[in-house]
Specification:
The protein is mainly β. The protein has 1 helix and 10 strands, in the order αββββββββββ.
């Protein structure tokens, strides 16, 4: 068992570039996947791409959008999105949002993005 409170302030409480990512399940847990509680800060725009992981994100609060080659899609509580491995996407939130994200394979726990406008950051 693990609680968010246990993760806060640890090496798995990561400022990922435009918010925080609390890594609740990491590679060392040896479950074959990882789980994060990710907060996206208000007014942010993040150019992202995951070359080494499949990611699935489920919005639990707030709102935003994700832009892919196929268009711009609104995100609100109850919305799930899953960019393909290596698929560039832009994550935006005007008012902030919280996502629960599953990664396969799991993150080590301390990864962070180097965000540069127009350049898709990956880990």
């Amino acid at each position: 068992m693990r609680s968010v409170e246990e993760v806060v302030g640890s090496e798995c409480d990561v400022q990922w570039g435009n918010g925080t990512s609390r890594r609740l399940v990491v590679r060392a847990d040896q479950l074959g996947f990882g789980l994060t509680e990710t907060y996206v800060q208000p007014g942010s725009e993040s150019y992202l791409r995951y070359d080494n992981h499949q990611e699935v994100c489920y919005c639990v609060s707030g709102s935003g959008s994700v832009e892919t080659e196929e268009g711009i899609f609104e995100i609100k509580p109850g919305t799930l999105y899953a960019p393909g491995v290596g698929e560039p996407h832009i994550l935006r939130s005007q008012h902030g949002m919280t996502l629960m994200c599953v990664f396969s394979p799991a993150l080590h726990g301390s990864e962070t993005h180097l965000l540069t406008p127009g350049v898709h950051s990956s880990y």
